[in-house]
Amino acid sequence: MARVHDNKAANYRTNGISKLTIAICVVVIIIVILAFTNPSRTDFYTWLESEHGIHVSYDVNEGTTYTHITNGQERSLNFRSGHIQHVGIFTTYNETFMDVEGNEINIKATGVMNMFFKR
């Protein structure tokens, strides 16, 4: 009787779905979800305004302009440098601005699943 039980277990493993296959499918599904929910540059600009009060606008004649709103006052910012690294399942942003007084504002964030986290 023990031999019949062993054969059923062996047949299930060869004909059924193995734990490794299920694990690989779960990992692939997670990677696809992360890739599709990787936030865009526009999402970053929206987060930048809500989190740091920096508004980004674009005009054909003037180009991209940055304004910083603090204590109800709007100040112009100059974009100094920036780096964006798209990894597929997440994106990192590092941007530096300078205000009119010469103070640098450095923003570092990681975007994943349509959310941003400060670094």
TrEMBL record:
Domain of life per record: Bacteria
Protein name: DUF5640 domain-containing protein
Residue stretches spanning the membrane: 20-37
Keywords assigned: Membrane, Transmembrane, Transmembrane helix
